[in-house]
Design brief:
It is built from 14 helices and 19 strands. By secondary structure, the protein is of the alpha+beta class. The longest helix has about 30 residues.
Length: about 550
């Protein structure tokens, strides 16, 4: 074209905008437009600004990719590159790090968002509690939404209009109504929510997002992270608990996830297996972020984490750096907030909508959780003995209290909110169809580490089962000293490192051979190559080794 002529210039990358839909904890949605090169932090800040949240480090945005793998949006990476799907993008605003002391959150609006998240956890099977605790939690929810009990406004059976638990019985609803009538009277919504937080933080599974994994024997297990450390479940047994100060590091390769534990100045490796490489990488990132957030004093102390072949330093592998602030830094900054408390706009549950869904049979969208299956149905399908063998103690330091094996088996006064229909992933971008379950023995279901496929935590032996029956493996009774923990594995990580080193040696050997052949046989004349060829050592090597080998090889080839 001619110099100075006017041509149409395409819009820059920064001018291209994509629409994002963010689903909030009260199931409302907000929409916004982002630039093509926008980082995740931009979107997180926009949502928190819309909610008027300052204590935003506890929250994050979650999405599901085309393979139904769940991810947390990385604040320092490009949004479009992370989601890898066609616009518009769908994300969910969720609590990412559960505070150790939820009642100490500085602002009421932050506590309200945490309250909404814990309501979802109770409904979708993440919180295990007794019937008494469940009734109290339900009463606090009703009090926060309806206020004081009124005989005229609250007729018989009014609690059944609210979906509080995965499957709630009439007996449990009656207990909730009794507590609402007598125990919670006079509590304002903020006070009822605060009492709810006080109650729920005492539960063993508070803040636990269980990742389904398998040990080296193929047994179904569940691994999760809390503010205290790493928790491992097998069946209904909490088999291991490792405090953060005893955890050295996390690594992964292929589909294997490794936990390095320091016990009495000795390193022990726990190995687990996930269903897909994407699932194990998601588990690794969750582990690294939780450890950094809860165990470090300052974010500047957190180092870049490497895994896979990246641990060798010169080969391609996975690298990840925690980009936020630590829990101690967040708590310190929260104490400096001096603004006037913003007004909290609560979004009450609509009983008429719940009733309509029940009549029409419409299934509510539920979060995918490995705990989100029929608890009592799984119990009914179990065999009398040997259905779940807890991992025996490794005799570790008391700091990580290994193999406490606290029994969560349902007793007459026990309640588990894991009683729900198969969940529909709420973060699916295009379809909300039910995911297919992979059958496992004893009525279990497998799911990937992201938790996007519902599964069942295996119930242990029935109440009253003896230690001998629980130790039966393949029909042979074993004592505690005979049972090796199936998740403790040593050789896999070392084998991967040696394999990588061997590959590197072979690669550099072939590269050297190619360079030598170039010097010996190159048809062109370069100054550097000519100087090498003129040396006496080169003539000696060419005459004594290379030419005889070349003649021998040519004779065989042409023969």
């Amino acid at each position: 074209f001619r110099f100075g002529s006017r041509v149409s210039v395409p819009r820059s990358r920064s001018e291209v905008r994509y629409q994002c839909t963010v689903r909030l904890l009260d199931d409302s949605e907000i929409q916004c437009d982002i630039q093509k090169d926008a980082k995740g932090q931009v979107l997180i800040d926009h949502v928190c600004s819309n909610l008027n949240l300052l204590e935003k480090d506890y929250f994050g945005l979650r999405f599901v990719d085309a393979e139904k793998q769940r991810h947390w949006l990385d604040p320092i990476k490009n949004v479009c590159k992370q989601m890898k799907s066609n616009p518009s993008f769908l994300l969910c605003f969720r609590v990412k790090f559960y505070p150790p002391e939820p009642c100490r959150l500085h602002e009421e609006i932050t506590r309200y968002e945490l309250f909404l998240q814990l309501k979802r956890d109770l409904l979708h099977g993440r919180l295990l509690c007794s019937v008494e605790d469940a009734a109290y939690l339900g009463a606090y929810i009703i009090q926060a939404e309806l206020g004081d009990y009124d005989e005229e406004d609250h007729p018989q059976g009014y609690v059944s209009e609210f979906k509080l638990f995965a499957k709630q019985s009439a007996k449990l609803e009656q207990k909730v109504a009794e507590l609402h009538k007598k125990h919670t009277r006079g509590q304002a919504p903020a006070e009822a929510e605060l009492n709810f937080l006080r109650k729920v933080k005492e539960l063993e599974t508070y803040g636990l997002d269980p990742h389904p994994v398998k040990d080296v024997l193929g047994s179904q297990m569940y691994l999760g992270f809390t503010h205290q450390g790493v928790v491992i479940f097998q069946g209904n047994k909490k088999t291991h608990f490792f405090k953060w100060k005893g955890v050295h590091k996390f690594t992964f390769d292929s589909k294997s996830f490794h936990i390095y534990i320091l016990a009495n100045e000795k390193k022990q490796i726990y190995d687990f297996r996930c269903t897909t490489p994407a699932a194990v990488k998601h588990l690794w990132k969750c582990a690294v972020e939780n450890q950094a957030f809860f165990s470090f004093e300052k974010s500047s102390d957190v180092t870049l984490q490497r895994s896979g072949l990246g641990r060798l330093g010169f080969l391609r592998g996975s690298r990840f750096r925690f980009s936020g602030r630590t829990e101690k830094e967040v708590s310190a900054e929260s104490g400096k907030i001096s603004r006037q408390e913003p007004q909290v706009v609560r979004s009450p549950t609509k009983p008429e909508l719940v009733a309509k869904k029940r009549k029409t049979g419409e299934e509510e969208e539920e979060e995918s959780s490995p705990l989100n299956e029929t608890f009592h149905d799984a119990l009914r399908d179990l065999q009398p003995v040997g259905t779940s063998t807890p991992i025996k103690s490794l005799q570790l330091n008391a700091n990580y209290s290994s193999a406490t094996a606290k029994d969560l088996s349902p007793v007459p006064n026990a309640y588990s909110p894991c009683v729900s229909e198969p969940a529909t992933p709420e973060e699916g971008s295009d379809t909300q169809s039910q995911l297919t379950k992979e059958s496992l023995p004893n009525g279990h279901h497998s799911s990937n580490c992201g938790g996007t496929i519902p599964g069942v935590i295996a119930m242990g032996s029935p109440p009253g089962a003896t230690e001998a029956t629980e130790c039966e493996v393949s029909g042979k009774p074993q004592g505690p000293e005979d049972v090796q923990p199936a998740c403790a594995v040593r050789p896999s990580a070392a084998a991967a490192v040696w394999k990588a080193v061997l590959s590197a040696v072979v690669f550099f050997t072939l590269l050297l051979a190619a360079l030598l052949l170039l010097v010996l046989e190159a048809p062109f004349h370069h100054s550097a190559i000519s100087q090498i060829r003129a040396t006496p050592e080169f003539h000696q090597f060419n005459a004594e080794y290379y030419q005889p080998f070349k003649d021998w090889f040519s004779g065989i080839f042409y023969l």
